[in-house]
Specification:
Distance between the termini: 13 Å
Membrane topology: Lipid-anchor; GPI-anchor
Structural class: alpha+beta
Organism: Molossus molossus
Strand order of the largest sheet: 1-2
Signal peptide: 1-20
GO cellular component, one term: side of membrane
Keywords: Glycoprotein, GPI-anchor, Lipoprotein, Membrane, Neurotoxin, Signal, Toxin
Number of domains: 1
Length: 91
């Protein structure tokens, strides 16, 4: 029972959080990239492109077109040993 509970909790931690995300929005000259923009709840990524009028798409984690935050892939790599141990306990 305990390995099954551990597997369930590990899977639950891997689910995306249901919250609105913030993405950086750059001004048309590209110098002001620190204005957070609230994203819709169903977006998957964030990217600001430099064209005549800057466009912004949103992401799965806050301010993902900025630097320094951990990505969901890093979280999955960190949880991999826990999942393997739980699966080994079930076999």
């Amino acid at each position: 029972m305990a390995p099954l509970l551990a597997l369930f909790l590990a899977a639950l931690m891997g689910l995306p959080l249901a919250q609105a995300l913030d993405c950086h929005v750059c001004a048309y000259n590209g110098e002001n990239c620190f204005n957070p923009m609230r994203c819709p709840s169903m977006v998957t990524y964030c990217m600001t492109t430099r064209i005549y009028a800057s466009t912004t798409a949103c992401c799965q984690y806050d301010l993902c077109n900025g630097a320094g935050r951990a990505t969901p892939g890093a979280l999955a790599l960190a949880l991999a040993p826990v999942l393997l141990a739980a699966l080994r306990g079930l076999l």
